[in-house]
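ok so for the tutorial part 2 we go from a plain amino acid sequence to predicted structure tokens. step 1 is just haveing the sequence, like this:
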Amino acid sequence: MASYPLFFFFFFFMFFCVFAISSHIASSATEEDEYVLTLDHSNFSQVVSKHKFIVVEFYAPWCGHCKNLAPEYEKAASVLSSHDPPVALAKVDANAEENKGLAEQFGVKSFPTIKVLKNGGEVVQDYKGPREADGIVQYLKKQVGPASFEIKTPEDAANLIDDRKVIVVGIFPTLSGEEFDNFNILADKLRSDYDFRHTTKAELLPRGKSSVTTPTVRLLKPFDELFVDFQKFDVDALEKFVEDSSIPLVTLFDQSPTNQPFLVKYFESPNAKAMLFLDFGHDQIDAYKSKYTDVAGVYKGKGLSFLLGDLKDSQAALEFFGIKEDQTPVVIVQKTNGLKFINLNVEVDQIAPWLKDYMDGKVKPFIKSEPIPETNDEPVKVVVANSLGDMVLDSKKNILLEFYAPWCGHCKKLAPTLDEVAVSFENDASVMVAKFDASNNDIPSDTFEVQGYPTLYFRSSSGKVVPYEGNRTKEDIIDFIQKHREGDETATEPSKDEL
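step 2 — the prediction. this is what the tokens look like for a chain of 499 residues:
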């Protein structure tokens, strides 16, 4: 299994290429042995509505990860069926045509996707726990127990310092009232991500003032200022406080298991991502770290999160951005819309002014692109990021554009079909079939949404963009082009011999 840092770089910048497996492997368990409930479009709402708490796995029969999870999920369901109260585990074949509506409703984009449904389905949360039986059991037992535990004694407070966790403690004069109720709402909402405690005895806590007279949330963490207090009890404000305060001022990008939860939080943050990559053996490493931390403090709470990575742990990131080691130290800013801003071979005293220019909108985005081909005479034309404007976006042609990855099996299978389509239109100057290597070129996300390979779009001569979601046959693709082409009423149909 890939480590979290690599996973999240691929999560943000790469896409899924699914390899279907034609055979369906039947479960070896008999119907009587199965503890996992089987749901579909016909019984989903009825079953979910009867449960205050139910876990639902959306799977595909051909998915290898789903097959690996199946026996662990079943084992966990068996154990949890005798828990007090029982915890129900269910599954939905999201690949089945009749269940596609459920998959869309719950935002299923990869397999397996696991959701936790509470209060008859009124509350839907992502499952963020382990994928092996013992871990599933322990995680779900925690989810159905109290969202927050009371600290009454020194022994209860003994484990509040943890170098891997952020712990949220509510301090109250009495365990009642609106503030206490809102704290518990927050604890239930975020229990998958944080440990929650509450107390009337602030003196038992290892950090912060021992005398607290007003309701206070104290966040204990193993980095930066080690604790921080908050006294606004609107639930949304509390959630923002916890989420913002649980990310280090500068997150370290490395392979340490201790650091993984904070990397997860960094990459899940809605902020733009600032990243400094350099050799930690650099003779000015302390100066870089000091300046970068100072700058992170300046922009805290301003929509920019900071990460620091050593070259030896950051090869995948550098490869993605197309950066060579001799171009480091490098500062990269990645916005949520995919735009990137890069400062190569940055000096210590250049970090602050460059980031200020970025925040002021004075830095131009960096566009990763392969070289424009010197010759482009194959039936399917090659488009790269630097030629996308001239060849596609500013073109007056009707264009079928494939976004692909060289390693994608489905893309390789489709390639000869697209060649045949292109040949069918080779005498029609108003139609072009083209391909775009999305793994090595930046995609303008405001025009094309690519979530898997291959993805095909048709752009008409007037600029209308339509996704192609039909069968991947020569005949169907040609019919689609003919249906959506514009501006060439005199164009001739491809000959029947060609079809």
